Please model this.
Amino acid sequence: MDNQDTGHILSYSQLAVVLVILLALTGVTVGVSYIHMGFFNVPVALAVACLKVTFVLLFFMHLKYEGRVIVLSFLSTITFLIIMIGFTFWDVAFR
Amino acid sequence: MTATPSFYHQSAPPGLTGIKAWLLTHDHKRLGLMYLGAVFFWFVLAMILGLLLRTELMSQGRTIMGSGMYNSMFTLHGVIMIFLFVIPAIPAIFGNFFLPIQLGTDDVFFPRLNLFSWYLFMFGGLFAIISLFAGDGFPDTGWTFYVPFSVQNSKNVGLTVTAAFILGMSSMLTGLNFVTTFHRMRDKRMGLMQIPLFTWSLYATAWVQILATPVISITFVLVVLERFLSIGLFDPAKGGDPILYQHLFWMYSHPAVYIMILPGMGVISEIIPVFSRKSIFGYKAIVWSSMAIAIAGSLVWAHHMYTSGMSDVSVFVFSLLTFLVAIPSAVKVFSWVATMYKGSIEMTPPLLLALMFIYLFSVGGLTGLVLGAVGTDIHVHDTHFVVSHFHFVMFGGTGFAFFAALHYWWPKMFGIMYSFKAAYVGAVLTCVGFLFHYVPMLILGMQGMPRRYYDYLPQYETGNFLAGFGGYVMCLGIVIMFVNLLRSFRQKVPAPADPWGGTTLEWKIPSPPPVHNFIEKPQIMDFPYDFKGVVEQSQQNDR
Amino acid sequence: MRAEIDRVGIKIGMWLFLYSEIVLFGGLFVLYAAYFHKHPESFAVGGKELDRVIGAVNTVVLLVSSFTVAASITAIQKGSRKLTIGLLVFSITCGFVFLVNKYFEWGTKIHHDIYPNSETLVNGEPGLNIFFGLYYVITGLHGLHVIIGMILLSISLVLVLAGKIDGSRFSMLDNSGLYWHLVDLIWIFVFPLFYLVL
Model:
């Protein structure tokens, strides 16, 4: 448990780089959607979305600089979400 | 003890007087008592409803009410007991009051949010009351609000699920407050393995409250939307799938079972070592089993749905996973019993109630295994066996833990002692009545009497009559218990700071506690259940 | 009695609240996943009906506003109050632009008789009805969150103007920012799921 918030300040240029990456990824995902790959469009679109979300979380939301409590609890939330969707498929996929 | 004024005589924030000192308070102790008042009201109301239901069932045919009334009434009994009693009872009352004290701090992290949660709770209750009288009356869907009935039905379902939505939010914010308090307000010298077990169980509960409650919120939002817009998300004619509603519903409501039982287990883990004068057996095992129950409890929701038409694969998987939950629960029961072994046991009302808890909860847990196994579940699904099972867990478990907590912490909360004799009489009557009430239901269920039915075949009459009789005995016991506690306000026998010989921090401060809990920095023990000091003290007194 | 403000604690509280929001949308994504599995063709047809360009524009608008909100927090920490105010005003405007776009998008759909319980949907393909049902519920709930986020940012703006938020006390702004990013996060998933499927 860290008791003092270091108050990490991200510079404007760092944030701008992240924004550029995010915009580029948006371009990629829209572009890919015009190419017909059948079923593979879905995993590609989701993978790009996950990548974008990771950038937003790590830099815009400062998750990279937070303490253990927030990082671990965030990961548990995501795990719970995966369980919610995944376990429903025990039913949906085998009906 | 020094003459520090108690929290009754000092308001937080300072300067408030009269009713304002309560309604605008940030003090976690006052809020705990305010929850106590509200929860007490709801409990008594739902208990009366339950008794009326059983009275109706005591003989065949119409006894005291019509079938429509009966349907609304069991729904109301379920909704109140679940959302307004079992879920908030222990965390909101005793959690609010004792979590900050056990952590050695003066309040929860967000005191104003805490007050807001209380208002949400009251507001949700108000909504439930309004839905009774507005429109076409209270829903008759059962507390599960299964689609398509809850969507097509003309009664006040919208208002009632809104009430449940608000109550869920209140419960979630309380959990948020507890987790933050646990991490940020704990006394700096208190390590993770020095935290009392009640607080640990509340921590595990709080996580379930935060992560599972939103699922029910969105589900209820969808029910309301379906009612107003008929989107068809759960309507097979429009491409929807009603079973997905059940998935979403149980994704919350199964973990909610652990919101209900975990704090109760925490209470028992406090009471057993104190009255055995012996350190708790397997402290770490209990801590980990709390967390394990919270986690495993989120993996098993679909075991409520074996007969609902979901795939055989998921029936198999969820049945298997369900047995996992039994392990940490059994670890706890084992630890409690092992704690008492060779302890120097002192019988008191809280301990008696805790022992009843262990017994009744074990029955509830073991009948749960019958229901967790697919083969047997399909036979008894939706029968009185299920009704009896969850009442053993929810009432025999959480309810008795609530009574035990009430008797255990009463002297600390109000600074007065109650009569032991009447408490014993009440507890024994409640327990005996309980068994008379629910054991016949187990048998009725195995014989095939369905739950929620207004009428039944002649062969079930004896069992139903016995159950009703047991219900009256049980309620008599509860009334004696409550009247005894309330009478203590008149007798005003002052309670010492530590009437039981407890070792956790709440027993180191005056009863009732001062407004900032600790007058001086508390001494943090290396291990919260070290009874050496208490035993030495009592030996000196004997000499 | 607490001597100083514990910013880490306040942030933990905010994150816990965000988790509950994530799971709230998670429930809807469960439905999306299950129904997508059931009616993949209808979802593809439905996705074609939505305007990819408007969707992409809205994505860019939200990403840029997310950036400006993050930058406004950097600005307040560095003590440049005017820049903070400018960035916040810009972010709130972005929120407006997003909502206006959404308004026209919904308007067109409703004009084409595509809305919950409309003739076209009820009598058409069931999978399509589910697709648009989810579309309205999820984007509607998301839109509600955009509005709440704008309110939070506006409150922060007022507090900055009043001097209640500065380089040493900016938890309110920090938390509003986190909320705004969450709105962005959800949109990042909503966009491909509805506008780009197959």
Notes: Chain B touches chain C through 41 residues (CB under 8 Å).
